[in-house]
Automatic annotation (TrEMBL):
GO terms for molecular function: DNA binding; zinc ion binding. Keywords: DNA-binding, Metal-binding, Nucleus, Repeat, Transcription, Transcription regulation, Zinc, Zinc-finger. Its main location: nucleus. The keyword Heme does not apply. It comes from the Eukaryota. InterPro entries: ARM-like, ARM-type_fold. GO terms for cellular component: nucleus. This is Uncharacterized protein. Gene3D superfamilies: Leucine-rich Repeat Variant (1.25.10.10). It is found in: Nucleus.
């Protein structure tokens, strides 16, 4: 799987360069005005089923994965995304609503089947770039299918962009890893998501394990429910201990600092021990099990 991921990275290099050239050409012309012209040529509503069109309200959002755009329309969105990632949306236009208007095309690009690695990469980069304010994040979260798609990508083809995008959607992302405090739900979906995230900390890809460790640190720091789920499930606890052992033996660099991943895992350990209600002797045994790994 890791060899396949490295291959996928090399496969996106050429088309990414091609769309970079398109973005530069746009910048030399009318910049953002031309981007909006491109966006307005795509009539999303005509591609939606009648049922989805009727559901197009803030409380009941249409399923964008039902869209079937023409390849040229997808290419137009990809050029638009390259301009977003180059900062054009903020440097070339005084219109503060411009970023919000870009989110739906990005959601379409991310959810449109069949998505390929380049398409996912562009969409994740663009959505991350546009998640800079509460209004923009709220608009992205309006398309709940985005979080479902993120779950699938993090499980099958994890990337730094996917994990970091998930982090931007706090507190929404926390709710996907643990039930509410007063809930009696025993849905294993929560445990599966946590296990997938913890497993990413063992990845060889430095960007992936660093982002995953940071995500776990933030989850355990902000959510007592997540700490409770981890401590209540022996399989999750063992998976976490395995990650602790992997990073506990890392040595500091020349300046005396641990890597970002090690630092995050130290933070995770401190957060977890905050929720331990066992006697001191049991807590010491838990700590010794990490150190002895």
């Amino acid at each position: 799987m890791r060899e396949a991921r490295n291959s996928n990275k090399s496969q996106i290099t050429r088309p990414e360069a091609e769309y970079d050239d398109c973005a530069k050409l746009e910048l030399k012309s009318r910049g953002c005005e031309m981007v909006m012209d491109i966006g307005h040529t795509i009539e999303f509503s005509k591609h939606l089923s009648q049922q989805a069109q009727q559901a197009d309200t803030p409380s009941n959002v249409p399923n964008l994965s039902d869209l079937e755009l023409h390849p040229h329309e997808l290419e137009a969105i990809q050029v638009l995304v390259k301009l977003i990632n180059n900062g054009t949306t903020y440097w070339s236009s005084p219109d503060m609503d411009l970023a919000l208007s870009m989110i739906k095309p990005l959601a379409v690009l991310f959810l449109h089947p069949p998505a390929d690695k380049f398409q996912d990469f562009l969409a994740l980069e663009g959505l991350s770039y546009l998640s800079g304010s509460e209004d923009e994040t709220a608009e992205i979260l309006r398309w709940s299918q985005i979080l479902d798609q993120l779950d699938e990508i993090i499980e099958s083809e994890p990337s730094e962009q996917a994990v970091e995008l998930m982090l931007l959607y706090d507190p929404a992302f926390r709710k996907r890893f643990a039930p509410p405090e007063d809930s009696t739900q025993t849905d294993t979906t929560y445990m599966t998501r946590l296990e997938n995230l913890i497993t990413l900390i063992e990845e060889e890809d430095g960007d992936v394990h660093c982002a995953a460790a940071n995500a776990l640190w933030r989850l355990t720091d902000s959510s007592p429910e997540v700490r409770k789920v981890i401590l209540s499930d022996p399989s999750l606890t063992e998976t976490l201990l395995k990650s602790f052992r992997q990073w506990a033996g890392e040595e500091r660099d020349a300046a005396g600092f641990y890597s970002s991943t090690s630092g995050s895992m130290i933070g995770v350990f401190k957060n977890i021990t905050r929720s331990l209600t066992a006697p001191p002797s049991v807590e010491l045994e838990y700590r010794d099990s990490v150190r002895s790994g």
